Amino acid sequence: MQATNEKRVKIHFNAKGRDCPVDPDLREHAIEAMNYDYVYFAEFEGMVLAETALRGHDEVLRTAFEAAKELILEGTIVPGDLGWRTDGFGPWPLTPEESVARIEREVAEHLRTGERIHMGDICWFDLPARITEREAAKRAAAPDSPAPDSPVKDG
Question: Which range scores top for mean pLDDT: 11-15, 75-79, 83-87?
Answer without folding.
Answer: 75-79
